[in-house]
Amino acid sequence: MDTRTFAIVRGSWRMLGATGVHPLLEGVIAPLNGLEAVDGGSHVFGAPGVIFGNEDLPADNDGQPLGQMVPSADLQKALDEIAGQIAGTDERLTILQKARFKTLEEGPGPATVVLEDGTRIRTRLVAACDGVNSSVRDALGIGTEDHDYGKSVFAANVKLDRPHEGIARQLFMPEGPFATLPMPDNKANLAWYMKRGAAEALADMPVEDIEAELNARFEDFAGHMTIDGPVISYPLKMRLARAMTGPHVALLGDAAHRINPLAGQGLNLGFKDVAALIDIMVESREVGLDHGAAPALERYQQWRRFDMTSVALFMDVIDRAFSNDNAVLKPLRGLALTAANKIGPLRRAMARQASADQTHLPSLMQ
């Protein structure tokens, strides 16, 4: 069972609204009203931190908060339902179930997608959203830059004994971050970064032992926690595609970038990919150009590659800088967090970046 809960930030939530899924998610989502980061470990004058919230963002016409917390399984179900409704009324959308990709055939015209059952599909553009181990990316011969952090993440849903008020909270410990993401009914989705093997071992323990470990370490930070549902663990790795396009192909989401899940930016990067590709396709069609031709795909790569790489590297730097108890780095981290908390324009800029609420973003996210 997928226990993940995604932080869908304001810009991404606007884009999802265009699909019509918002009504299908009522009752399972929780508003994300703020983000808090606290530097744990040992500090002479207390652990410094930073928090920003809805008040640090420009007013939204629909009164949207910084974002929405959406359970993965519910989001998938809602998107599948919308896609099924469209396919049932619009012949331009065809859903092929249990159809596995085999290879791509290139030629002077459109690309040909070959499925394992022999089905052949000619198309001007292949939008490859087939995950971190993308078969389409492999078929194009696009390599990746990989980094294994030597860590794993323990994840679970928990009930809290005190109100979370819609605040996503992150405690940076020397061994890695501990985060709680708000959910309805005063529940939270937690993620605890641990050394490889430790997270897996914790996930295999009896529930009462897991609760005892969590509360012994983090009750002062998060409140008393009670496990609510299954627990999982997964290895922490980064994988970046060396190119985001090929002939008549664009890579999106995890097929192009699997980044450190710190701050929950991974899925939102994928939504930016989708929104950017839609803008480019629409603009190309309006001027009578092929939306799957090299000029359009080059625009997509230029638009998205810098953002993808910079976010991935920034998350990597943050993880490395805060996941230690270094006597030299600690005061520098404290100064940076204090500045971010006290300097209004800096705090507001961080809030807009984190919420994807900026004017240079794709049109569906504005």
UniProtKB/TrEMBL annotation:
Protein name from the UniProt record: 2-octaprenyl-3-methyl-6-methoxy-1,4-benzoquinol hydroxylase
PANTHER family to which the protein is assigned, alphabetical: UBIQUINONE BIOSYNTHESIS MONOOXYGENASE COQ6, MITOCHONDRIAL
UniProt pathway annotation: Cofactor biosynthesis; ubiquinone biosynthesis
Cofactor: FAD
Family: Belongs to the UbiH/COQ6 family.
Pfam families tied to this protein: FAD_binding_3 (PF01494)
Signal peptide, first to last residue: none
Native organism: Hyphomonas jannaschiana VP2
